[in-house]
Design brief:
Elements: H1 4-9, E1 16-17, H2 28-35, H3 48-61, E2 65-69, H4 72-83, E3 89-94, H5 98-101, H6 106-109, E4 114-118, H7 128-134, E5 146-153, H8 166-178, E6 182-187, H9 190-197, H10 201-204, E7 210-214, E8 225-229, H11 231-243, H12 252-265, H13 269-283, E9 289-290, E10 300-305, H14 313-321, E11 325-326, E12 328-331, E13 334-338, H15 345-360
Parallel strand pairs: 1-11, 3-4, 3-5, 5-6, 6-7
Antiparallel strand pairs: 2-8, 7-8, 9-10, 10-13, 12-13
Helix pairs in contact: 2-12, 3-12, 4-11, 13-15, 14-15
Bound molecules: pyridoxal-5'-phosphate and threonine.
């Protein structure tokens, strides 16, 4: 994992951090709001600023209640564990979704919940018929875990930030209801999906029983997520948050920044998407690199090194890092960049020129047809 300190050691003054949209720094307005936030003990009662954020988020997402949690990982864990409240429950989820890949298997190790993986398509969806086929037959209860929950992820990070349509989400919701199941959406970047699709966020998640929304991603808050759902769901979630050590005291300091972020940054997401498309189009002009431009729907760009190009992702990432540009390496032949509100159009042009140089370095070009 590249870090800013390593870049600074190279005496690079300009840092363009494209590793993730989690890297944004709080703005001056966020810092001012943090410094002056009205706070109280959120475990013994309600922190007033946390209450304001939770009230605003419940309304925005079209749900009855909301709860601030320290991270998206905890938001997903709590949501799954509230729905799957009996050990040996099973959740149907995508094989490349974040809950399945990047959350340490917490639903199983902590909650005793069995993950039932269904193949994610390139667009982040799971075939509806495969979801239905994965639902356990209650008649087989002697052998099978009990299916309780279906999880979707919108946007889908490992598909490159692809958006799940409202029509698809509604169909999965209908399927869940038909089988007496609940639907959770990992909505770490749900605002990106809403903006890209032009669908109001409350409509996009209407079919879901719960949603985990990251404030710390494209929205640009320094910390935190919010889970939304019914009053009964959130009451159970609040208790589980405490069990997991997520009940924090004067969290208004963090929630104040999130309130500013919601005001300042939702409107900037379309610009993040435009910068991603600009970068993707520019990268496709670089001999040796390839981007599936159709898959760039929001703020993420996966960059593949073309067959025959004599370099590897770690070499390109190192070359970029030496010039102050931080890129996430996904594999020996794949890199990821994520745009956010603290990346400017000139940063995009600078990154493009450095990618061009990285691959144009002598001997790196394809052996044939240089
Ligand atoms: C799709 C998705 N869900 C959940 C998370 C987890 O969020 P956090 O890093 O705040 O735990 C992430 C990562 O940032 C993510 O990309
Ligand atoms: C790396 C992953 O956990 C994080 N959610 C990101 O997209 O940056």
């Amino acid at each position: 994992m590249r870090n800013v300190l390593a870049v600074q050691e190279n005496m690079v003054t300009r840092i363009v951090d494209l590793r993730s949209d989690t890297v944004t720094k709080p703005t001056e307005a966020m810092r001012a709001a943090m410094a002056s936030a009205e706070v109280d003990d959120d475990v013994l009662g309600y922190d007033p600023t946390a209450f304001r954020l939770e009230t605003e988020m419940a309304k925005t997402m079209g749900k009855d209640a909301a709860l601030f949690v320290p991270s998206g990982t905890m938001g997903n864990l709590i949501s799954v564990l509230v729905h799957c409240d009996v050990r040996g429950s099973e959740v149907i989820l995508g094989d490349t979704c974040h809950i399945n890949i990047f959350e340490n298997g917490g639903i199983a190790t902590i909650g005793g919940v069995h993950p039932r993986q269904v193949k994610n398509n390139d667009d982040g969806t799971m075939d509806i018929d495969l979801i239905e086929a994965a639902i356990r037959d209650p008649m087989g209860e002697l052998f099978y875990p009990t299916t309780k929950l279906i999880c979707l992820e919108n946007t889908h990070a490992n598909s490159g930030g692809r958006c799940l349509s409202v029509e698809y989400t509604d169909r999965v919701g209908e399927l869940a209801k038909k089988h007496g199941l609940k639907l959770h959406i990992d909505g770490a970047r749900i605002f990106n999906a809403s903006v890209a699709l032009g669908v109001p966020v409350d409509r996009l998640v209407q079919a879901a029983d719960s949603v985990s929304v990251c404030l710390s991603k494209g929205i640009g808050a320094p910390v935190g997520s919010v889970i939304v759902g019914s009053k009964n769901f959130i009451a159970k979630a609040r208790r589980l948050r405490k069990t997991l050590g997520g009940g924090m005291r004067q969290i208004g300091i963090l929630c104040a920044a999130a309130l500013v972020a919601l005001q300042e940054n939702v409107g900037k997401l379309e610009s993040d998407h435009k910068k991603a498309r600009l970068l993707a189009d520019g990268l496709n002009e670089v001999k040796g690199l390839r981007v599936d431009a159709c898959s760039v729907e929001t703020n993420m760009v996966f960059i593949d090194i073309e067959e025959g190009t004599k370099t590897r992702a770690e070499k390109i990432c190192k070359y970029m890092e030496e010039r102050g540009i931080l890129v996430m390496q996904e594999s020996s032949s794949r890199m990821r960049v994520v745009l956010h509100h603290q990346i400017s159009a000139s940063d995009v042009q600078y990154a493009l020129s450095c990618f061009q140089q990285a691959v144009a370095v002598k001997g790196v070009q394809k052996e044939m047809g240089n």
